Amino acid sequence: MEIAFEDRAMVLQDGDESVLLIADLHIGFHIDLSRRTGALLPPEHPQMIRRVQRLASKYNATRLFILGDVKHSIGVDTSYNWEGIPTFMEKVQDVVDVTIVPGNHDGNLRPLLPRRVRVSNPRGIVVYHGEPSVAVMHGHAWPSQSTLEAQVLVMGHNHPGIRLTRSITIPTGRGHELKRAVGLLPVVVRTTMNKNCVRRAQGLRERADTRSTLFVLPSFNPLVSGIDVNKENATLQGPVFSSGCVDVQSSEVYSTQGILIGSLRDLQMRNSETIK
Questions:
Q1: Coil, helix or strand for 63?
Q2: CA 191 → CA 51, 138, 212, 241, 254, distances in Å?
Q3: Which DSSP state fits 141?
Q4: Packing angle of the helix pair 45-59, 79-93 (nearest 10 deg)
Q5: How many CA atoms lie less than 13 Å away from 141 in the CB half-sphere?
Q6: Minimal CB count within 10 Å: which of 106, 187, 189, 252?
Q7: What tens digit of pLDDT does each residue of 50-93 get?
Q8: Which residues 6+ apart lie within 8 Å of 41 measured at CB?
Q9: Which of 4-18, 32-46, 144-158 bottoms out in mean pLDDT, i.e. has the lowest?
Q10: Residue 242: which H helix or E strand, with range?
Q11: DSSP string, 93-133
Q12: CATH code linked to domain 2-163+184-275
């Protein structure tokens, strides 16, 4: 099995078939953003449909796993949810089998879904049983025992990104240079999770397999920002992080195309020096 990254998605390739993993759609976010900014924004789900269709075609994908937060609104009773989410699922289900691993925004999601769309346990599901085995979850809850046994764990929830800055020189005689944030570049975080630390936190027995590779995917929705991981002392959210079972500082940061950008520690150090 080979792992590839493209367009904020993770692709598990095995022979002629592939599995797509995407996270944090937050369908309907444009409404919230329009209210906050006063700008009229188009719905984001049509272009996300086209992106999934293109990825499925390019990689001959047969399955799609959505790693939580399909909805943006916590409740279900908004008119846009009844329009955007069924449309997205029906169009995508025409090209791949869809399974949703619910996130913290996905309460009362089932009434919005076509019958063919599967909904898994929020604590995760194993999606590939080969070598290495791969499990997925949203990240707001502890992983289940079967999820924890996988060699690779993929989650969302954090929307990781790198804060970009630009130098601005203010004419004040001798001049004065300021750094201004100009955007958040979505990234993939790769790190290592201490499985026995997670087991102890849940009252489970320790086992011989002590480590797993952990990937955190960015939001698939281009309107959604998140945690700028290059900020000094930035932390990731979710119980596996807050428990100290992941050494976040030793993480590696990759572009959404899978290109290594650098270690999280070095990126935070460079960002700190830039701000100074």
A1: strand
A2: 27, 16, 9, 11, 11
A3: S
A4: 10
A5: 20
A6: 252
A7: 999 999 999 999 999 999 999 987 666 677 788 889 999 999 99
A8: 30, 33, 34, 223
A9: 32-46
A10: helix 239-242
A11: HTTSEEEE---TT-TT-GGGS-TT-EE--TT-EEEE-SSS-
A12: 3.60.21
Q: In angstroms, how far is CA 53 from the centroid of its own chain?
A: 19
Q: What is the pLDDT of residue 179?
A: 60
Of residues 70, 67, 69, the one with CA closest to residue 22: 67
Edge-to-edge strand ranges of the sheet holding 61-66: 2-6, 9-14, 17-22, 61-66, 97-100, 118-119
DSSP SS3 for 15: coil
Q: How far apart are alpha carbons 203 and 216 in whole angstroms?
A: 25
CA distances from 102 to 48, 71, 136, 155, 182 (A): 18, 10, 11, 11, 32
Residue 263 in contact with residue 254, Cβ under 8 Å? no
Burial grade of 19 (CB within 10 A; 0-12, 13-18, 19 or more):
buried
> What is the value of pTM for the model shown?
0.90
Task: Using alpha carbons, select from 268, 263, 11 the residue that is nearest to residue 136.
Answer: 11
Between CA 15 and CA 63 the distance in angstroms is: 14
- Run of H or E residues at 56: helix 45-59
pLDDT at 35 over 70: yes
Tokens of 56: 């499925």
Both tokens of 264, joined, read: 């999280």
Q: Provide the β-strand partners of residue 66.
A: 22, 100
Q: What is the DSSP secondary structure assignment for residue 27, as one 8-state letter?
A: B
Side-chain-side CA neighbours of 256 within 13 Å: the count stands at 21
